[in-house]
Amino acid sequence: MSATIPLSEPSDSFSPRPVISVSVMTHPRRAAHAEALASAFEEFAVRVVTDPDPAGRPSTVRTAREAWKPFDHAATHHLVIQDDVFLHPQFEPQVIDAVAAQPDAVLSFFSEWGSFTSHAIRVGAFIGAAWIPQVDTYLGTQAALMKAGLAQEFADWLRGLSFEVPDDHALFEFAHTRGLKHFVSNPNLVEHDVGESLIGNASQGLRRATVFHGVSQAPRAWWQHQPMTGLRLLPAMHWSRPQPMLYAKPRRGVVRWDIRPPASAWGAFAGAVQQLVDDNLSAFVSRPGYGKLRAAVIVLCEQVAVASAHPGEHVSDRFGESCAIEAALTMVPGALRVEDGARDLVTDTALMAAVGVILQDVRRTLIPRLDPDTVSAYWSTSARG
Questions:
Q1: Domain that holds residue 269
Q2: pTM of this prediction?
């Protein structure tokens, strides 16, 4: 995808340098990995927090109650990391820059590649947004951060919850009920490991990051770009229901987005998009599950169309373009992560090359001809910069 990627303008100033403490949540069965993860930090104060009842029923909340307690009085913010991730090579400096840009928000530095939020991140990556509002009813807790005072409040609040409640759903509810801004980073700054799940998620397939840009560091100014706002309709294909759909923002006061039947953002060009996909995926027609693979690529093209209609100001940026490419290439393996042969999709370079050609052609030949009114309904007027 070599076309220019539009970006929103960055803010003019940075907040004071944050001081960050870290808790690594773990279970005795993964203690060695947790200690290795903790040792990777050079600047942040870090501690390992072990499940206080490892023989009990698996529960993330039980450990989260302890992990979210700040322990460094000098820290302005507290970060909790789960033991089944690995860090970006430049994790600490990027987190410092990210938190300086969004000091008051609850931040998640991971979103798995088959979630509804992953699709919002892809649209955000196509418009060059560094911050994406979470559209799922949970906030990714693989690597989550908030102000130290809020972290203590959250730890106390968790004591009123049942162990049955997942900590990621608890974090979303906490942020929502308190009216806190909550964003997911683009790019993600941790990657999910492929080890054994201790809470029964093995049947959910690979849960990798939507865009883990592990080969380069975001420029400091990148994190100052304004969050994506105003998305009303999101073309999606959730891993648990691998079929095209629209994810629709609910009316004010309602938390859960609605699932609606699919509708093409391309209008009169929907057939041309499908033909372009068919022409470039012809080598894969005999593959089992081809229909779902084709559908995932068409949904990705829908997301490109939606991004092109974002009404905010656009500027170009090389780092943003590289994030957009990576986000696009996780679409198929993310949406199809529980399908037969899903693991092979991750390393299928021929398929990824075909997807890249499709997106390049869509942007070069179809986006310039797309009527903005066709996709204007996907955004609210609040998205204007």
A1: 233-383
A2: 0.92
